[in-house]
Structure formats: structure tokens, C-alpha cells
Amino acid sequence: MAKQQAYEVVVIGGGPGGYGAAFMAADLGLEVALIDPEANPGGVCLYRGCIPSKALLHLVKVKQEALEAEAWGLQFSEPKLHMDKIRDWKNKVVEKLTGGLGTLTKKRKITYIRGMAQFADAHTLEMVAGEEEGSKIKFQHAILATGSEPVELPGLSFDHHHIINSADALNLEQVPETLLVVGAGYIGLEIGTIYAGLGSKVSLVEMTDGFMPGADRDLVDVFSKRNKDLFETVMFETKVTEAQVKKKQVRVKFEGKDADKGNDSYEQVLVAVGRKPRTQNLGLENTKVKVDDKGFVQVNAQRQTAEPSIYAIGDIIGEPMLAHKATHEGKVAAEAIAGHKTAYEPQAIPAVVFTDPEIAWCGLTETEAKAQDKKVKVTRFPWAASGRATTLGRNDGFTKLIIEPDTERILGVAIVGTNAGDLIPEGVLAVEMAATAKDFALTIHPHPTLSETLMEAAEALYGQSTHIFRK
Ligand SMILES: Cc1cc2nc3c(=O)[nH]c(=O)nc-3n(C[C@H](O)[C@H](O)[C@H](O)COP(=O)(O)OP(=O)(O)OC[C@H]3O[C@@H](n4cnc5c(N)ncnc54)[C@H](O)[C@@H]3O)c2cc1C
User: Fold this and answer.
1) Tens of pLDDT along 299-324?
2) Would you state the pLDDT for residue 1?
3) How many domains does the chain have?
4) Which of 31, 93, 103, 269 is the most buried (most CB within 10 A)?
């Protein structure tokens, strides 16, 4: 039986953007409904992205560390993988976090509607799937947060068994003997690292000339050096032109520089070549919401679309497609709807690749500075000189600051090394607060920690890094 309900704010999509927006709107005293097909909020990030991938990356890192500890006199027996238990543990991590979000939703008195919605007009949604299918929901304001989905390549359509996407890969139905990963961006590298750690022979094929297109090459070089034996084969400037599933194998053809390095077939092929906004079947044509030529919803600084009652946040509005960007935008949209003076205007959005070593950066990169012909000073502190890195047996890494020459203002920070992702927020704060290299140098950092590398990178600008001798 179709019901009619009305709310001050309805959020469509329960990912980090959507639940962040719904929670903020409720905290600001608005009457909120949140719509998503899953039993609890979480979205791609918690169910099929950030969280399961990081749980599994942690597992393979522990395995690797156990092997490397032999050099320090600590020997374990050869690790055994119990796939059912691993799957179970990963699922429990997801359940725990999404369950927690469900509880927080209830505590905030947000009405959670399980299903899919589409716009009937600028103030009405219609439930098109789920427990309330057919019912209409009226809203004063809506926040669209339906996220993104994996891009398919022509000739490489997902059958979800042999030709798979990241969500299939993280379901961990099987650990194939051979896996070809198409695309060496962060998703391809993270999942490639997981499967190699679980025992698959992983090959990688990438259209550009290196891992992590767009990231500074000096950071990527540290990753490449440590992981030179992780992958069976790596093919750069090479494309997959054809794929056919035959006798439980995917036969593939390659074209390009390294085409002859590839096998004829693989048990599974993971396509990780990017993500596209989920704007299909949303009834956007019944509103004035506009999308750009790549399909991303267009918004202003308050994240309001061309339809004044509808806001949009997260992956659906464009790059960088990252959970923390989505959440921040969600808060801005909720504040704007509540009548606060607010805007989305970050100076730096951190990016972290959770491989081993981790690669993290924020603000201006060296590559961007070169492309913009912008004069910058670059200072680095090698982790070979870090006490903490040495105690961890992980001297592979460095910390780099990108500095405006006249003001010595920190424009960007980049770090490669173990736990780089946990160090980068200090860089984000520095860029946001317009801190200078001197601020970093004069701030006492705890010893022995990897955070000292930020301070010492700044000291190195003046030739005064304690642990570097300048001739
Ligand atoms: C493998 C992988 C690893 C990742 N790792 C990281 C990471 O480490 N760090 C990071 O910052 N980002 C990571 N990301 C990216 C991150 O997951 C996204 O940026 C983030 O989830 C975007 O949040 P969102 O709120 O925009 O949408 P999503 O998380 O995509 O959520 C959208 C939700 O809307 C729902 N929905 C869609 N249509 C409708 C509809 N019509 N009605 C109701 N609900 C609907 C969907 O089912 C989904 O639950 C990763 C992504 C992948 C795939």
C-alpha cells in the first residue's frame, strides 16, 4: 500500500556522504529521512570499498611482517591462510561498522528507509524498490548521494565470476591461481596487493607508463622498489583488446609496449579502470538538476544543484572520489539547508594509497607545480635517517614538503612509507592553516615517531636537519 510521508530533509544514498549529511542535518535539529538499499548505512565505502579493502590489506601486511621478522631473530612458521575465517573476519569488520551506523541513525531519530528512490518532481521522491516500493515521500530539501560504480571496458563486461570488479574481488569468493588486474591506479594496486598476499599470481596491465598515474614519480619509485617481486608481470603502455571466457579461463589479447610479456589466459580478470557517477534511474529529468559532460551532477559551493531544493554530494559530483571528501560535502550541504553560512572550500584534500609502503599526499604536488610552471622549493627527509623507521625495519620512505619560495608557506606535503596515511593529516592542517616551513621546524614532535620526518624535512630547508649532515 503506497504511503505518503514528508520530511524537512531526505538524503538519498547511505554512503559516507549520505550518512554524514543525514547525521549533521539531524544534529542541526532537522527532521531527516535516509534512503539506501542496504540494511544499514555504509555505502560503497563500508560494504564494498575502503573498509573491506583495508581490513584485507592489514591482514596481508601482518603476514609479510611475520616473514620479514625472521631477519630480526623472530621466526614464525609459514603462515597458513584459512579463507573461510578470513572472509568471516572481513565480513565481521563490515557488520560491526555498518551496525554501529545503524544504531547512530536510530539514536539521532533519523527515519531509515530501506530501498531505492527516484525523483518524481522537485519536492517528491518515489520509492522504486524496497520495503516501501510505490510510496511517495515529500521533502523540503533533498541531498543526493548515490555515489559511483565501476567503469566497464568494451569487450570486458563483468560476468562477476571470471571478469570481475572491485566489489566482486572484495567478496573474496575465490583466490584464483592467476589474476590479471587491468588498471594500476589505487584500487588496482590495493586489490592486487591483497590477492598477491593471499597467494594468487597477480599480473598488472596499465595503459600509461607507470603505477599510480598522476602521483609524483619519486613516491611511486619507493613503492616499485619494495614491490618488485610482488607481481608476476607488470605491463605498462599496454591495453587489453579482447577477452573471452573459455573453459573457466579468461583468454586475453594485449596491445602495446609490453604486450608480449602477458599470458594467453588468466583464471580471473579484475577491471579497475575507474568509477562513474550513479545518475541512472534517479528521475533527474523530472527536476532541473544538471549534469556535466562526464555525467557528474553540477553543484555550487554550498553543494546545491540547479534545482534549488536539491543538493548533491560525494562521488556523484566528481573527483576526487574519496570518502572523506564526500563526508565533508555532506556536512556543508546539511549546514546550508539549515540556513548556516557555509561553503565547500578545502585548501587540501588528502589522498592515501594503502599499499605497502603507503603513499599519501595533500595540497599541491610536485607534478602539478611543474605542469603549472609554478616556482616552488622542495625539501625532503629520507626515512633512512629516521630513528623510528629504523626501529620498524622500514627505512624505505621519505617525507617531502612543497613550499612557496617567498613566504615559505607549505603548499603541499607528500609522504611514502609505512603508515604514511596516518601522518598526512598534519600536512593537511598545515596547508589549511597556511603554516610555514618554520612552523613545522619549530613544533616539537615526539621522539621516536615517524612524525619527526615532517619537522626534519622542514629543518632540511634551512640545512639544519638534526639527522642529516650538510657538507
Ligand atoms: C575498492 C575501493 C576502495 C576504496 N578505498 C577508499 C579509501 O581507502 N579511502 C577513501 O577515501 N575512499 C575509498 N574509496 C572510495 C569511496 O568508497 C567513495 O569515495 C565513497 O564511498 C563515496 O561516498 P558517497 O557517499 O558519495 O557514495 P557511496 O559510498 O557510493 O554510497 C552511495 C549509496 O547510495 C545508494 N544508492 C544508489 N542509488 C540509490 C537510489 N536510487 N536510492 C537510494 N540509494 C541509492 C548505493 O546503494 C550506496 O549505498 C574506495 C572505493 C573502492 C571501490
Assistant:
1) 999 999 999 999 999 999 999 999 99
2) 43
3) 3
4) 269
